[in-house]
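Lay summary. Proteins are chains of building blocks that fold into shapes, and those shapes determine what they do. In this project we predict the shape from the chain. Here is one chain we studied, written as its sequence of building blocks.
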Amino acid sequence: ETWIGVQIFGLPQSTCVNPDSTLKNKIETIQGTYNAIKKEASAIKTKYESISPNTPAEVEAYNSLIDAYNALVPKVNDLAAQLKNLISLYNGQVNDSNSCIASHQ
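And here is the predicted shape, written in a compact code that computers can read:
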């Protein structure tokens, strides 16, 4: 008769917390909105930069474009700040998860 002893040094991966998938989805949603608004602002900027207003009607159209652009800039900046914070939080979760997995191998 032979006895074989086995000792397992490991934990299931489920022991480590995965990054929050809801947070990832939120980042992706905000990123899509950010890209759309930024694209719109860029298009407006390109348009007003190509105009040399001479008549009162052209000046009014030019000013209208400037106002539209200026209304979008704070939205772009706010979304960029939100993304920066959320991505930093998510990256921290990924790093924590990776460290946990590496320490249990």
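What the prediction tells us: The first helix runs from residue 21 to 49.
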